[in-house]
Amino acid sequence: MDLSSLLNQFGPMIYEIVLSFIFFFAFSIVYRYSRRFVSRTGARLELEPHAMNALMLILRVGAILIFSTAIFSIWRLPTEWFVGGSALIGAFLGFGSSQTINNLVAGLYVLITQPFKVKDYVKIGDLEGQVEEITINYTNLYTPTFNLLKVPNIQVMNNRVLNLTHEGFIKYTFNIGFGHNESNQTILSECIHPAIEEFHVQHSEVQLRKPEVYLESGDRLGKSFLIRIFIPKGEAKTLYTLRPELLNMIMERWYNLQRE
């Protein structure tokens, strides 16, 4: 007696439940190994993180379609269920899920237009961080607080996006302000340039270029300088560690200058 005959003795409901459970278990194993195969193949072919993200997304969507189709086939759902289900889903979407639909459309827009790619460092409105994953619903950012932030794609589409990743590295700029009690030349020669030189020597292995400095603005209250550092693409953690270190080195020299 085969497995199908044995299950049929317990009635169609039990047969379908057990078959669904077996299919779910087998499908989970196949899906897990498929993800692992795609990941290893991508690593062997040295695909870009953005391409790997797209492949994983295609695999995920395909798996959902296959699983849904198989479950409907196992349970032999009648056509009326599809009609009724479609009407119910349509009503649900119409009354309570417009935001979700907008987010899905925004996700497709982000994936197609590619304002940024995985491992790019971006600023989205008031948010900033390294792009870790782009899905239909969310863009995942690794933020300066060393946390993973899920940004709805509708928010990505409705905000200004600034991509700080160019030519294989992150060009990150931050400002630092001073009063008028010291001249620009003194600040540059005594505080900023020595700090940049020391910083570059200490961390030359994780930088692509020496940091740069520019005078940003000035008014009757003080002046502001822009400091730009260059970190390899995908190394946001290094950026988050080194930026405050350089700032501290500059400020320590400023404090010592004031004591003299």
Concise description?
The protein has 260 residues and is of the alpha+beta class. The protein is 57% helix and 22% strand. The longest helix has 34 residues, at 12-45.
Structure description:
It is a single chain. The chain has 260 residues and is of the alpha+beta class. Among the domains are: 3-77, no CATH class; 169-259, Alpha-Beta Plaits, CATH 3.30.70.100. The protein has helices at residues 3-8, 12-45, 49-75, 79-96, 98-113, 153-157, 184-202, 236-259; strands at residues 121-124, 127-134, 138-142, 148-152, 161-163, 165-166, 169-178, 209-218, 223-232. The strands form two sheets. A five-stranded antiparallel β-sheet has the order 4-3-2-1-5. A four-stranded antiparallel β-sheet has the order 6-7-9-8. A hairpin with a 3-residue loop joins strand 2 (127-134) and strand 3. Helix 4 crosses helix 5. The radius of gyration is 28 Å and the shape is elongated. The model has no long low-confidence stretch (mean pLDDT 82).
